[in-house]
Amino acid sequence: MKKLLFFLNAAFLAILLIAMSSDVIGQTPYVTVIQPNGGEEWVTGTTHLISWMDNLTKPVMIILSTDGVNYNDTLTHSTSGTTWTWDIPSSQDTSSKCKIMVVSTIDNGISDASNTSFSIMATQSAGANTIVQPNGGEQWAIGTNHLISWTNYISAGVIKLSTDSGAHFTAIPGADSVVGSTWTWNIPSSQTTSNNCLIKIVSKNDTNVFVVSDSVFSLAYTGAEGAITLFQPNDKGIHWIRSTDHLISWSDNFSNAVRIKLFLSDTLYSILADSVTGNGYAWTVSDTLPVDSTYKIQVVNRADTSIWDRSDSTFSIDSVSSGGASTPGDTITLVQPSNGEIRWAKGTQHLISWFDNFASPVKIDLYNNDTLYSTLSNSVTGNGYAWTISDTLPADTTYKIRVSNSTDTAVWDESDTAFTITAIPDGGAIRLVQPNGGERWALGTDHLISWTDNFSDSVKVELYHK
User: Fold this and answer.
1) Alpha-carbon distance 189 to 144, whole Å?
2) How far apart are CA 320 and CA 341, in angstroms?
3) Is 382:359 a contact under the CB 8 Å cutoff?
4) Mean pLDDT for the stretch of residues 215-240
5) Residue bearing the bigger pLDDT, 199 or 126
6) Among the listed ranges 186-195, 297-306, 418-427, which one has the minimum average pLDDT value?
7) Distance (Å, whole) CA 162 – CA 172
8) Which bin fits 442, alpha (ψ -120 to 50), beta or left (φ > 0)?
9) How far apart are alpha carbons 217 and 134 in whole angstroms?
10) Are strands 362-368 and 384-388 parallel, antiparallel or unpaired?
11) N or C: which end of the chain has fewer CB within 10 A?
12) For 280-315, how does the pLDDT look when each residue is reduced to its tens digit (9 = 90+)?
């Protein structure tokens, strides 16, 4: 169990290290314009952020087109990073066909432009503003900081909050004269909770110019549903043996204790622990639990039972390992690789891990298409083996690992489903943590993209837009 805990901690540390050390060696150079990318309305005499993504090591230039075809107005000849602040001059020509192009200063063939036109206007059109966030469905915790953001421009605005679906709006303290299109709200601990909140931004110069959230969002004391994320058991194909120890693990954003529940066929079966602090719980699976494949774990905030997470997929409780046992009580369960979605690349290193309840060493065999391909090791002690995948191993989708008691080969377990060896690293070995669906991020703001993986190589981060 200590080795498993060390492996999990190392995986979390790897998130931070990779996030800081990712590079672009060997990648195809690219630039992708983020903002403005079509539909924005920017007013002369105001300031806006031009932003893009790239993997370049040299500066870029930014060029404006006012007809959507000819790019002949260079805003800056050289800037580094992925954002540039544009103070739009009052004398700037107005147009509804504007586009921005970001171009490599080394190779002008590496460039990208706004997908569709945006507008540069002398005055803001009434009703043209749009709330980006909160715009419906967000669940914000009292005592935390959040960014209120909107598109287009209200030269000086008042930000107001309604907690009754818009029947009454009250100015947020400190937000009575906000310049720009973003404002950080430090939600006070005294803030009233509600599931029917709306934000309204009103121009100080013209109260007929305003914008309101499209639908309601929530303000809660300790976070909202989803503030807990269950890590394990959460994936498909997990098989745990009665009378063996396993780690239930999760992340959360509060200090309260949690309650851990066991479900069978989506019905509460038992409470495994009533009050647990931290982010892990060592569970000894009872030898009286029914053998079944429809178990799930639920982790619940004890102080607010609306905050919880449950296993995405069911897992199995077995009486013995799938390979059986010739010695009563001897069991072994392969933990990884046991999921058919795993894709490991040649030349990378991965952990093969298992649980057992005997003192003998373990033999590790590699199978391809259900045929023994090679023995990775004849004698391994402990519960893990670091496997460096040979560059000469054929790329294929039918690999399995088998672990067995080296002194009694009748005691064994193997991958539940086949996994893939690829020629180069690809998505199966990485699990994206954030963003993973439902987030609403404002243009021109900073956010953490995070993931877990099981290799030591650098990663490439790409943005896709449907």
Assistant:
1) 9
2) 24
3) no
4) 71
5) 199
6) 418-427
7) 10
8) beta
9) 7
10) unpaired
11) C
12) 888 888 888 998 989 999 999 888 887 888 888 888
Q: In this structure, what token pair is assigned to residue 257?
A: 């204790």
Q: Is the torsion defined by CA of 333, 379, 352, 418 positive or negative?
A: negative
Which letter does DSSP use for residue 285 in this model? -
| Per-residue pLDDT band at 148 (split at 50, 70, 90) | confident
| 437 contacts: CB under 8 Å, gap ≥ 6 | none
CB 65 within 8 A of CB 73: yes
DSSP characters for 52-107? EEE--SS-EEEEEESSSS---EEEEEEE-SSEEEEE--TTPPPEEEEEEEEEESS-
Q: Parallel, antiparallel, or unpaired: how do β-strands 239-241 and 315-318 relate?
A: parallel
Indicate yes or no: pTM above 0.90. no
Residues near 78 by Cβ (< 8 Å), separated by ≥ 6? Answer: 59, 60, 61, 105
335: alpha, beta or left? (left if phi > 0; alpha if psi -120 to 50): alpha
Residue 6: count of CB within 10 angstroms of its CB: 11
pLDDT score for 11? 40
Closest CA to 368 of 337, 412, 401: 401
369: its two tokens: 């298409």
Residue pLDDT, tens place only, 319-363 = 764 443 334 457 788 878 876 667 788 877 787 888 787 888 999
Between 425 and 338, residue with greater pLDDT: 338
Report the candidate in 105, 92, 98 with the shortest Cα–Cα distance to residue 69. 98
pLDDT of residue 139: 74
For residue 125, CA distances in Å to 87, 122, 209, 456 come to 19, 9, 8, 52
pLDDT attached to residue 12? 39
List the structure tokens of 392: 């000469």
Name the 3-class secondary structure at 7.
helix
* Helix (H) or strand (E) segment spanning residue 5: helix 2-21
Give the distance, in angstroms, between the CA of residue 73 and the centroid of all CA atoms in the same chain: 38
Mean pLDDT of the chain, nearest integer: 78
Q: Could you tell me if 46 and 90 are in contact, meaning their C-beta atoms sit under 8 angstroms apart?
A: no
Alpha-carbon gap, residue 141 to 314, rounded angstroms: 30
Q: Where are the beta strands (DSSP E) in 288-359?
A: 292-301, 308-310, 315-318, 332-336, 343-345, 349-356
The amino acid sitting at 441 is W
pLDDT at 440: 58
Beta bridge partners of 41: 119
Question: What whole-number distance in Å separates Cα of residue 244 and Cα of residue 356?
Answer: 8
Distance CA 343, CA 366 (A): 15
Both tokens of 120, joined, read 């540069």
Average pLDDT over residues 452-463: 67
DSSP 8-state class, residue 225: T
Query: What is the tens place of the pLDDT at every residue in 15-27?
Result: 333 333 333 333 5
